[in-house]
């Protein structure tokens, strides 16, 4: 019969089977060797020059943001721990499409549906996006798609300061991607890059980093409110008008 000690200091006998079960659990957890021969005072405070918890350790940026080329910016987005809203549990949804594209689509931050699809616009919204592109005679292969934040973190809400940071990154993104035209999808990109809610920003031509820009409804919003499709169509036609 083996013995254990409860928190009150009393010795409690445990059976061989219980002891074997406990040892098996530790072995399954990978604890199969003695890692420290000397005893340790677990109640002793850590040395002052060491963080008390891992939560206080700020991870270093993996890739320095050189941002001289689109590939470098994409690499930074894929690995940096200095991005707005960054978290170890956030899923990164990377942009896709060619450089110098016929059109760049900049959408709101990714949703669960986008995260599941692994792209800035996913699911039924992406199917509608492809139909919208076809309507203005742009093959989907000639569209570059990105989101205001490449991070999907359920329950997170972007603060004004984080939105400004995302806007700064987006402007650099637009400059390096160098699309012929830019379509802002949703209220978030309109607020961040134009300083106006979508209802005020749409139906007008803007310039961002020298690129002809129009803001319109996110395809997901059009699915929920089909009555806005006629307004979105006018925005698309406005975007595609010849430069005067």
List keywords for this structure.
5-stranded mixed beta sheet; 244 residues; 15% strand; Uracil-DNA Glycosylase, subunit E
Q: How many angstroms separate the termini?
A: 92 Å
Radius of gyration over C-alpha positions, nearest whole angstrom? 26 Å
Determine the CATH topology of the domain at 105-240: Uracil-DNA Glycosylase, subunit E
CATH class (first level) name of the domain at 105-240: Alpha Beta
Shape: globular
How many H/I helices?
9
The computed structural class is alpha/beta
Helix proportion: 25-40%
The CATH superfamily of the domain at 105-240 is Uracil-DNA glycosylase-like domain
Mean pLDDT: 82
Main sheet characteristics: 5 strands, mixed
Protein described:
- With 244 residues, the protein is an alpha/beta fold.
- It has a domain at 105-240: Uracil-DNA Glycosylase, subunit E.
- The protein has helices spanning 16-28, 70-79, 112-117, 123-135, 160-177, 187-194, 198-201, 219-224, 229-240; strands at 2-5, 11-14, 91-92, 103-107, 143-147, 151-152, 181-185, 206-208, 211-216.
- The strands form 3 sheets. It has a 5-stranded mixed beta sheet with strand order 5-4-7-9-8, sandwiched between helices. A two-stranded antiparallel sheet has the order 1-2.
- It is globular and about 80 Å long.
- Mean pLDDT is 82; it is low at 4-9 and 50-64.
Characterize this entry briefly.
The protein is α/β, with parallel strands linked by helices and 244 residues long. Helices cover 37% and strands 15% of the residues. It has a domain at 105-240: 3-Layer(aba) Sandwich (Uracil-DNA Glycosylase, subunit E).
């Amino acid at each position: 019969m083996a013995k254990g000690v409860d928190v009150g200091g009393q010795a409690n006998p445990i059976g061989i089977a219980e002891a074997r079960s406990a040892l098996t659990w530790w072995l399954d957890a990978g604890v199969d060797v003695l890692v420290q021969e000397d005893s340790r005072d677990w109640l002793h405070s850590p040395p002052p020059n060491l963080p008390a918890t891992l939560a206080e350790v700020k991870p270093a940026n993996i890739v320095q943001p050189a941002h001289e080329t689109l590939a470098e910016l994409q690499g930074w987005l894929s690995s940096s721990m200095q991005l707005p809203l960054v978290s170890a549990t956030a899923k990164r949804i990377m942009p896709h499409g060619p450089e110098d594209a016929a059109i760049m689509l900049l959408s709101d931050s990714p949703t669960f549906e986008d995260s599941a699809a692994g792209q800035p616009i996913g699911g039924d919204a992406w199917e509608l996006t492809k139909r919208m592109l076809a309507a203005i005679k742009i093959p989907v292969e000639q569209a570059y798609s990105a989101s205001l934040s490449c991070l999907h973190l359920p329950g997170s809400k972007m603060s004004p300061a984080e939105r400004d940071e995302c806007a700064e990154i987006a402007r650099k993104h637009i400059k390096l991607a160098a699309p012929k035209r830019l379509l802002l999808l949703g209220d978030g990109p309109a607020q961040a890059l134009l300083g106006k809610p979508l209802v005020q920003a749409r139906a007008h031509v803007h310039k961002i980093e020298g690129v002809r820009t129009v803001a319109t409804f996110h395809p997901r919003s059009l699915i929920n409110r089909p009555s806005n499709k006629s307004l979105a169509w006018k925005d698309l036609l406005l975007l595609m008008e010849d430069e005067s």
